[in-house]
Amino acid sequence: MKKFGTSATMAAVIFAQVLAACASPAPAPAAAVPATEAPAATVAEKFRIGLVLPDLSNQAIADIDAGARMRAAELGNVEILTTATYSGEEQAKAVENYVAQKVDLIAYDSIDAAAVGPAVEKANEAGIPVIAIISASASGKNVSFITPDFTENGRIIGRWMATELGAKGIVAHVEGNPADAAGANLTTGFKEGLAANGITNIVASAPSDWDRERALAVATDILTANPTLQGLYGANDDVAMGALQAVNAAGKLDSILLAGHNGTCEALASIIKGDLDFTVMLFNKPLGGLTVDTALAVIAGKTVAENIAAPVFGIDKPIAEAILKGDSSKVPDNLKAEVGERVNKAQSGCS
């Protein structure tokens, strides 16, 4: 862990905040269908769910697809059709294609809220129910929105970084895509988390379109223009790993704090190594399974919650090392098993 003079007391305070946010996500109303409850659908009937996601090269996104397929296999009467792309226009076409195929429900994670909106409206007109996951369209009707609180996730990262650096910390941000609602909310929350802890200025911020190579270029430019930089947040772990390449090339791994978001195995391994410093872990396989259960409940005519919260967990090297030694006391009880499994897998090389 890089040293910036933060006291142990301050560190304890920030992780108390992180744990409070992770252990107590905003509860969904009682009508929500929990992931462990099999929805009341006719088992003999086959259902098709059209799933539209960003690119599956992003491990966190691939986990949504994997979780949905695992749940579908358990149920035995669900077929998952997946289209994955980082293009908002291609996502819109995918939604329209699923409308033409007359699937039973469409679930999507929008990469461009405005671009996907008209396609969601077409699904509404066709009477096909739609569920948003992670990031919703700017228009159209979603029967449910399953997502972490990305604004709060950004605050967690901002609070952590400001506490580590102090109020005079010099911080920059490599964004994802401002047109993506989840990315925009992460940026907003990050700024709020910094400001609440004394850092009111981000010296540089530029989009990467969620692309690692683009993030490398953006971070390189930021480092060149800001030689005294102390903290850098990459919008997700792929972006953060691109930024890490730039920081490493500049010979500044020991002087710049790096944060990401998603909790990919690669990022966790980097945290254990001591290169990346912090990330917020998402739990997207359970989210994928929850999407399937919620979809079948909707198809069966049940009322589901308009907003369903997904849990997250903030992790740095000391917490990861404690977990590897068998101490998961800082992990919420409902996340201990998966966090432990993922941290140990990262330690073993992500194989």
Describe the structure.
The structure is a single chain. The chain is of the alpha/beta class and 351 residues long. It has 2 domains: 8-24 and 150-282 and 313-347, Rossmann fold (3-Layer(aba) Sandwich), CATH 3.40.50; 47-148 and 284-310, Rossmann fold, CATH 3.40.50.2300. Helix content is 47%, strand content 16%. It is globular, with a radius of gyration of 20 Å.
Structural class: alpha/beta
- Mean of pLDDT: 89
CATH topology of the largest domain: Rossmann fold
How does the major sheet shape up? 6 strands, parallel
Percent strand: 15-25%
Strand order of the largest sheet: 2-1-3-4-5-11
Q: What's the number of extended β-strand segments?
A: 12
Q: What is the CATH-assigned architecture of the largest domain?
A: 3-Layer(aba) Sandwich
CATH class of the largest domain: Alpha Beta
Indicate the low-confidence ranges by residue numbers. Answer: 5-44
C-alpha-based Rg, rounded? 20 Å
**What is the number of independent domains?**
2
**Which oligomerization state do the chains in this entry correspond to?**
single chain
The backbone outline, from C-alpha atoms, is: globular
Give the SSE order as H and E letters: HEHEHEHEEHEHEHEHEHEHEEHH
